[in-house]
Fold this sequence. Notes:
This protein has about 160 residues and is mainly beta.
Amino acid sequence: MSATAVGTTAVETLIGLRVCIFTVGAEPFAFDLRRVREVVVLDELTAVPAAPPQIVGVANLRGDVLPIVDPERLLGAAIRRAGRRRRALVVVGGGAHVGLLIDDVLGLETFDDVLEIGDATRQPYVACALGRLRRSDGLVTLLDADKVMAALRRREG
Length: 157
């Protein structure tokens, strides 16, 4: 990665950053595609007694136990899709993997620039954000998977 020339709004210049763009509530977010394993549809969750509030349960993912996390407190956006058949984005970071509840996947896209966080500095997710990505329909917040996992661990304590 090389630094961007002074006077531009980009934090870094990247060549072909591939991301998975998804929504939580009406807010679009993205993870580097190398940190996303899959999207799963959850028919059943198993409750975990005395679990931290952000863990809504665990799911069996082909024999592996996957913690399922509600991102509302971390991202400041609430899931609109409730009840059965919820979707989770399986994300890897910080040596762990979780299923992050989402509303929709908007797709996979490639970007060359990551912009500064800008006017989102007061949002709850700012500590987990790498910057923003410009799409034709607006800005998408790029999240750092390692920072998201670290923030989830802090909330467990």
